[in-house]
UniProtKB/TrEMBL annotation:
This protein's record includes keyword Lyase: yes
The protein's name: Dihydrodipicolinate synthase family protein
Lineage: Bacteria, Bacillati, Bacillota, Clostridia, Lachnospirales
Source organism of the structure: Faecalicatena acetigenes
Family label: Belongs to the DapA family.
InterPro entries to which the protein is assigned, alphabetical: Aldolase_TIM, DapA-like
Keywords (A to Z) from UniProt: Lyase
Entry keyword annotation includes DNA repair: no
Length: 295
């Protein structure tokens, strides 16, 4: 089952930079995308949870996708398009396609639905004619895509793969046992599982950490592919404190934005109800960046 497009490599789960007046900083976004491509990223993922998707207007999402597309070069643009209902999600997927993205990352609808409902949801979205990536994030949606559901959903023609953020390595392993990463796309979205995910065979990553340390994340993947596990381990160990700090779920992506800003990229404060990092948290980020060899 060879899908129409197969993604591989590292994709930063982009933050959305804001200016002091709270408006989206499109020029800052473009500069960040150009930098990530210059260090070897395969593409970018815009308007996900790291990018404050829920706090962006429809117009801002479209503008952001177009900005990424403008400077991505030969890379890929993946854009988030999740919403509560199929009808609303359908409109967002259309926006993603019309703005020039290569694929839509579609978070499962939040709340209760059946496996049959999930199939109908993605079949409906598939009519738009853009590659779709499932987004398994049960902590955020209350819906778990298990192996049986995945087997059904991956049969939908325009569903080309999945971003897996449940944190289950056995689930990833079961998918890898059944499907080839040369035929479908399987991303990990768990920053703390970068090394083990690569070690069991994943070839694609969408991570928040790649906003701050893209080269290190790329190096982990490359070193694992070359069989240099001990070298990959050292990078992974040194990134661990940073991954922990910026992944603060209570105020995400506030600390991620601050860390990205400390690395010289446009960021700005998050939108309310998220609040900026405190001075104490900034000091913790600074220390984590030093441990990672970034400062």
């Amino acid at each position: 089952m060879k899908k129409s497009i197969v993604f591989k490599g590292v994709f930063p789960a982009l933050i959305t930079p804001f200016k002091a007046d709270g408006s989206i900083d499109l020029e800052g976004l473009k500069e960040s995308v150009k930098y990530y491509m210059s260090v070897g990223c395969a593409g970018v993922c815009f308007s996900g949870s790291s990018g404050e998707h829920a706090f962006l207007s429809r117009e801002e999402r479209i503008e952001g996708i177009k900005a990424c597309r403008e400077v991505i070069g030969n890379g890929y643009v993946i854009a988030g398009a999740g919403a509560l209902t199929t009808a609303e999600t359908l409109e967002l997927v259309k926006d993603v396609k019309n703005a020039g993205a290569d694929a839509a990352l579609v978070l499962s609808p939040i709340g209760n639905t059946t496996a049959d409902g999930m199939v109908k949801h993605y079949e409906t979205l598939g009519t738009v004619g853009i590659p779709l990536l499932l987004y398994n994030h049960p902590a955020a949606t209350g819906i778990t895509i298990d192996i049986d559901m995945f087997d059904r959903l991956i049969q939908i023609p325009n569903v080309v793969g999945m971003k897996e953020t449940s944190g289950s390595l056995p689930f990833l392993a079961e998918i890898l046992r059944r499907y080839s990463t040369d035929e479908i796309t399987l991303f990990t979205g768990c920053d703390d599982l970068t090394l083990p995910s690569c070690a069991i065979g994943l070839k694609a990553i969408i991570l928040a950490t790649a906003n701050v340390a893209p080269k290190q994340v790329i190096d982990i993947m490359d070193l694992v592919n070359e069989g240099k596990i001990e070298e990959a381990q050292k990078i992974y160990w040194n990134l661990a404190p940073l991954t922990r700090v910026i992944g603060d779920e209570a105020n995400f992506p506030s600390l991620l934005k601050k860390a990205t800003e400390m690395m010289g990229h446009a960021a700005g404060d998050p939108r309310l109800p998220m609040i900026p990092a405190t001075a104490e948290q900034e000091a913790e980020i600074e220390e984590a960046l030093k441990i990672a060899g970034l400062k």
